[in-house]
Design brief:
Chains A, B: Keywords: Aminotransferase, DNA-binding, Pyridoxal phosphate, Transcription, Transcription regulation, Transferase. Chains A, B: This is PLP-dependent aminotransferase family protein. Chains A, B: InterPro entries: Aminotransferase_I/II_large, HTH_trans_reg/aminotransferase, PyrdxlP-dep_Trfase, PyrdxlP-dep_Trfase_major, Tscrpt_reg_HTH_GntR, WH-like_DNA-bd_sf, WH_DNA-bd_sf. The structure is a homodimer. Chain A is α/β, with parallel strands linked by helices and about 475 residues long. Chain A has helices at about 20-30, 45-50, 55-65, 105, 145-150, 160-165, 170-185, 200-210, 225-235, 280-290, 345-360, 365-375, 380-405, 430-440, 475-485; strands at about 70-75, 80, 130, 195-200, 220-225, 240-245, 260-265, 295-300, 325-330, 340-345, 410, 420-425, 440-445, 445, 460-465. Chain A folds into three domains: about 5-80, Orthogonal Bundle (Arc Repressor Mutant, subunit A); about 125-135 and about 385-485, Aspartate Aminotransferase, domain 1, CATH 3.90.1150; about 145-375, Type I PLP-dependent aspartate aminotransferase-like (Major domain) (Aspartate Aminotransferase, domain 2, 3-Layer(aba) Sandwich). The first copy, chain A, has 15 helices and 15 strands. In chain A, strands 4-10-9-8-7-5-6 form a seven-stranded mixed beta sheet, sandwiched between helices. A four-stranded antiparallel beta sheet of chain A has the order 11-12-15-14, with helices on one face. A two-stranded antiparallel sheet of chain A has the order 1-2. The longest helix of chain A has 25 residues, at about 380-405. At the A-B interface, helix 1, helix 4, helix 5, helix 6 and helix 7 of A face helix 1, helix 4, helix 5, helix 6 and helix 7 of B.
């Protein structure tokens, strides 16, 4: 059956160009066997008329298809499917799916499911008042410069960094930048062999837990705190100690005895955003040394310090090698980047390197190289500076709008940050509130998943201003306040 | 101290353009505090003269720096470091590193290091006769089309797929292509919720082991076989059964009792490249059902079938849900891509999804989208077709050159493949041979790491023709043969 122009339909939701849409229709028809060798394609004129697009678009698509040998042009008589087109014979597939005979409740030996997580709305951009945390704002991310760096990393002479198997290694340009520029700003001195690139901070935290913990070990963490940590610890089988935080973060004297590791966010506590004062940090390190436990520091959002300079990382005070530092580019650039890093003593990094090799080999070299360029050319710092200015404004507007409501700011970073931790009146379950607000165009993040245990507070929520413009903040907060009144 | 033109040096090893090199020198001088607000930059004319480059290159670099607010142009008098340039105050760093007080032999609770791995030469491209396995050949990879797809995935309207946090989700375009195009060619029918994208096949194999195995479970694998599997299994603490393979792959009647999982490469055994015949596959599935074990199928290099069509995957014969299928784009496209996928029953994929979320969240959306375009536009199949033609020629040349030597082809895929598994005379330790050959410009991969146990054969090696041109193969093999004679 020849491919007549009537079988072409443009998909309004197609993400690419018109030209690539036409390429894709033809190539997949050939690959799927719907179009056979020797069959004729509609002329570029006819197809262009049928689709109401320019003829040159069709011609360019056909040229690309010729280059890949899907089609051939015969002298003056048009385009035909090439006799040597890439075609794979399809094996026979049985038409129905069978019912498993495997008893999965027995086959699955470790249950990784069932953790409390924050429910996110994936189509959040369609909401007018998205107080969404940790999603990039297209108005603030410098996509044009990122694109230039990405194109540079796609160049001919970058073939190796794009395509090669790095195995246990990393892109030397990125490691070099982290060692020479990023870490010194956090007060940290590290050699390249003390740094390992990871698939985001999540991967770094997870590896640290895998190396340090098992059923015979105990770990403490902040409560409320990042819910992902509880899942990571649960998977190791270790004993878990949630420690209640106060308005200065985790109180060292509340730490239990017999601890092997502490997971902590000193610079910007998740989710309350408070910063741990210097004397607590010193006390924490003293205790760690005395009681012989290790500290995994998630150095979280320190870039967003627009009210005062960020305090140096806990790791910068560490003289014993007790602090394992977790950094991330995914948070400040964009979460889809999936690039973070671990900094620690060599015996630890050596283990992390071996675990990374066995579990995923390495984060894509191309993402590492693009990031190295973006950092090296100064775009990163320029972008952070812009974001700081915008966030400062948004923070002010948010604080003002909250002032005359039933809501109480339960946590705010003294140095800046990207949102507030908010307490609603006790009668309010913010998970219920979240659903009601979503129907009214407002997105908030319910706070219960940040608390350990079943009987934990339900009236907190995270109100981030990182993805909503200053102009929309007052009306968004008015709607939240209204919904709380009507609760 | 102003930045005078004399402090600019072009680095001949710099990977980017001249323009970006100049941007980088200025931006990092400002970020590092070597250049302060208000200080003057050399004029574009002077700097261009000093470096012997075109003035427009310098001007363009300066414009980019102005856009990021690193520098400002003052009317007619030149460029100055901006008063509001991104600058981060550096905390004081102690000048020396301390000696750890941590006893790492006690702190490390799980030892991930120490596995046998294949040593690779990272600068392999500088060797004239690289019989390297699994590294991309720049002459065969269609980088121009990849670049176009990557640029498309960087477009304005692709902002979400580039930047968003997918959490436990994947790019729907890639999942769709795998379900509708890739799997049907392997005879497999799967719904999107039965597919999970992974950071390469390594990550897929590792997750399967984490879910199915622990200290109370037993797993079998091929011997010789992929060395990474032994490491993955060792980390789970399970009982390990290596099973000797013959010239038809793994013999089902050699499988021990009490097995919970089998890891296998039926389509193209690693490293011998043999294909398992259909009757063995059926017997394997019958046994799996009778004895209630699961099979993890690494469907390895099936694309390189140029002598006859590939046999359908083992998974295509599976009526019980016993086969967990591992596919990869990293092998056929390029290893640095780090994209693979798992296909299995929903209760299994649900666990894998939760484990992936906790251990790394998701593979970068941008790599997923770029791959989806490359596949969807038909470039992938076109490239595979080209590779098949070239590999067929190289295979023939390799076989001819080996015929008159002391070497014996111990394994070759009946359908094609990218290399041979070669047996040298028993007196030869191929790890020693490898070192001698490297001094003579030839790279081979010693075979011992593929065997389980300490007392395993040392006279095998892998001879891949995927990264060496046909013209160079005969001389390369002559040198190997010579080195064996002189051994």
């Amino acid at each position: 059956m020849p491919l007549v122009e009537d079988t072409f339909f443009l998909d309004p939701n197609f993400q690419g160009t018109l030209q690539s849409q036409i390429q894709q229709i033809v190539a997949s028809a050939i690959l799927a066997g719907r179009l056979q060798a020797g069959e004729k394609l509609p002329s570029s004129r006819k197809l262009a008329e049928h689709l109401g697009i320019s003829r040159i678009t069709v011609t360019l698509a056909y040229h690309e298809l010729v280059a890949d040998d899907y089609i051939k042009s015969a002298n003056r008589s048009g385009y035909y499917v090439s006799e040597t087109a890439p075609m794979v014979p399809l094996p026979a597939i049985k038409g129905e799916m069978h019912k498993d005979t495997v008893d999965w409740t027995k086959a699955v030996q470790r249950d990784f499911t069932g953790g409390k997580t924050v429910k996110k709305n994936y189509n959040w951009r369609s909401y007018p008042y998205p107080f969404m945390y940790g999603q990039p704002d297209p108005d603030l991310f410098n996509q044009a410069s990122w694109r230039l760096c990405a194109m540079q990393a796609l160049g001919k002479k970058e073939f190796d960094s794009l395509t090669s198997d790095y195995a246990e290694q990393d892109d030397p340009e990125l490691i070099n930048f982290i060692a020479r520029h990023t870490l010194p700003r956090r007060g940290i001195l590290a050699r390249p062999e003390q740094i390992l690139v990871t698939v985001g901070a999540q991967n770094a935290l997870w590896m640290a837990a895998q190396i340090l913990l098992n059923e015979r070990r105990a770990a403490a963490y902040e409560n409320p705190g990042y819910h992902g940590i509880r899942e990571i610890l649960r998977h190791t089988g270790c004993t878990q100690f949630p420690v209640e935080i106060d308005d200065q973060g985790l109180p060292p004297d509340m730490l239990p005895d017999g601890l092997n590791a502490l997971f902590i966010t000193p610079s910007h506590q998740c989710p309350t955003t408070t910063t741990m004062p210097m004397d607590r940090r010193r006390e924490l390190l003293r205790l760690a040394n005395e009681r012989n436990f290790l500290i995994v520091e998630d150095d979280y959002e320190f870039e967003m310090s627009f009210l005062k300079p960020p305090s140096p990382a806990l790791k910068s005070l560490d003289e014993d090698g007790r602090v394992i530092y977790v950094g991330s580019f995914s948070k400040s650039l964009f979460p889809g980047l999936r690039l973070g890093y671990l900094v620690g003593s060599e015996p630890f990094i050596e283990q992390a390197r071996a675990l990374r090799l066995a579990s995923l080999r390495h984060p894509p070299g191309y993402m590492q190289r693009t990031t190295a360029y973006f950092l090296g050319l100064g775009h990163y710092d320029a972008m952070i500076k812009r974001m700081r200015g915008v966030y400062q404004k948004r923070r002010q507007v948010t604080a003002q709008a909250l002032a005359n409501t039933e809501m109480k700011v339960a946590g705010r970073a003294s140095f800046g940050g990207s949102g507030f931790w908010v307490e609603a009146p006790e009668r309010v379950d913010t998970e219920v509130l979240r659903h009601r607000l979503a129907d009214n165009g407002v997105l908030i993040e319910a706070g219960n998943p940040f608390f350990a245990g079943e009987d934990s507070p339900r009236n907190f929520f995270r109100l981030a201003y990182s993805s909503i413009s200053s102009e929309r903040i007052p009306e968004g907060i008015r709607r939240i306040s209204q919904a709380i009144k009507e609760y």
